[in-house]
Every structure is written in structure tokens, then in C-alpha cells.
Amino acid sequence: MLRENQGLLVVKKENKFYLSNFTGSGGYLLITSKKKYILIEGKYKKQAQEQCKEFSIVVLKDKNFVQCLREICENNGVEELIFEENTVVYSLYKELQKLPFKLVESKNLVENQRAIKRYDEIEIIKKSCDIAQKSIERALDEFEINMSEKDLADNIERNAKKLGAEKIDFIIVVSGERGALPHGRPIDKKIELGELLTIDFGCIYNGYHSDITRTYSIGEVNFKLKEIYDVVKEAQQLGVSMVKPGINTKEIDRVVREYIKSAGFGEYFVHGLGHGIGVEGHEKPLLNECENNILKAGMVLTIEPGIYIPELGGARIEDTVLVTNDSYELLTTISKEFKEIGLC
Length: 344
Prior knowledge:
This protein has two domains: 6-113, Creatinase/prolidase N-terminal domain (Creatine Amidinohydrolase, Chain A, domain 1, 3-Layer(aba) Sandwich), CATH 3.40.350; 119-341, Alpha-Beta Complex (Creatine Amidinohydrolase), CATH 3.90.230. It is 32% helix and 25% strand.
């Protein structure tokens, strides 16, 4: 990844975790062709010793970070220092400019590496997805008509923690007309008969994210809402069926978007089709109208079309999908068949 005269400075928390297993909020990584270092305050020393077995630990005491960085780079023959242009703040960049090294923007060097998951990462993501979908299923087993969106969300989060989630990433619970809000947060609104209910949930397990969305019918809904659901379901299955190595993500987005448009709902699909998932909830590859990304085996991504009509409601269905050597594997498996809930 690095030439003999290069060093990589890593500041972004998720990249530090990916490369070193360090979960602390502070510190920096410096990776050279000869050796790997983690530069930290003393309060992180024990944590770094336990988590960063392949890294030399440098505790920042009297010397400031940039001075210490210079000494390590010079001792390792570094002439070009690669930095994360999207993460390094301007004040730090100005300090780095004082160093006698050529500064090189990373161009998503680590993020591109993260896009293709190792076997151990895939297994952790599978577990994270399993926790997320079981949390939804268990909460729906206890669902009753007129329960509030907030109460349902609380039940989902509580189940996730019982099942081993280390953290809740996000939760969206919207019903009725609020279903037209793609990222609506749960409120005290009661979930009533004749509405669609959309649940979008993700948790974190061992540092890796999950993401799943399902839409349910609260009793019987009108023809228009059922039509919306059916179009979203077909569009989502179409997108999933296209996932395989070698295909351009922009093409998957285009085909799904055209299908929704042909059904008369094009203007109501207002976001990208999906995104990669891993140590971040949204990472490479992105699936939208602008990004040209070629899928490769080992990538994990979401397919999540939706239709959102103001003053009526909406529906979204989302799966987390693994790109295999010749096709795909669904990591979220809750049924997508139209389902009425709350009647028993």
C-alpha cells in the first residue's frame, strides 16, 4: 500500500479502528513501510496496549504531536506524508505544512480498502444484521394498535441491547402521513389502523453496523398505499437481483429508478438507492445517480428504494447485501411479503 519513502497519517476514528482495532476517540496512527505507530495521550496507553498489538505505542508527553511525528518520520526515511484530506482539520493541516515532507492527499486510500470486507468482518456484519432484524421481530410480537412510534422504537432498541448490540446506530419509526419522511424520527404519534408503518433500524456490534428497513400494514390499507408498497417491493427485488461483481452501481440505481418512474412514482423516490456498510453506517460504495462504482466480491451494501408522497404516506424496503464471487447473499432476511399487523 505504501512506497518505501511514504508514511500514512490516520486521523479518522473509523479508519483508526479498521487498521489498528483501537476504539478510543483520540490519538493518531502513523504507518510507514517499516513500522506502524499509534500516538496517544497517556490516558489511552493501557487501551492501546490491549487493542493495538501490531503497533508501537508512542505516548505524547512533553513533545507536541507534530514534533513527535517529524522525529518518527525522519527515523523511518519518510519523504512523503499521506494525510486524510476529508478529515484533517485546517489548523492541523497548517502545522503539517511546516514539516520538511511532501504532503499528499490520501484520495480515500483507507476507505477504498475498507470497501472490500475480510471474512471476519463479514461474519461480524452478519451478526449485527441478525441482532437488528431479531430486535424488530420481537418488538412487533408485542405491538398493539395505538402504541406510539416512540414506544415501538424503545422496544426495538431494548431488544437490540438484550441481544448483544454494543450501541444503537439509529432508528426511524414513522406511520401514516409521516411515512413520507424518509428520515423521520419516532414521536408520540399513535400508530393507527389503515396506516403504513415503516421501521428503519441499525445497531453496532463489535464495531460494525447493520441496516434494515421494512414497511408493514396496520390492518387493511387503501388501494393507493398498497400500490405504493407493491411498487417498492418489486423495485427493491429488482435492485437486489442485479447485485454481482463487475456491475456499475450507477446502472443498478438507474434500472430501479426507471422502474419506479414507469409505475408513475418517479418524483417520489428522492434519495440514492443504497450505500456501503461496515465500520461506518454509510461508506463506499455509494449507489446513486452520480457515483460510478464497480461492485467487487466482498463488498457489503444496502438496496433501499422508497416512495414518499406528502399528505399520504410512504414505504421503503431495505436489505443489507453481500457481493459474493458470482452473485449476492442477503444478510437481512425478514420476509418482504405484504403483511398486516396489529389485528390479534
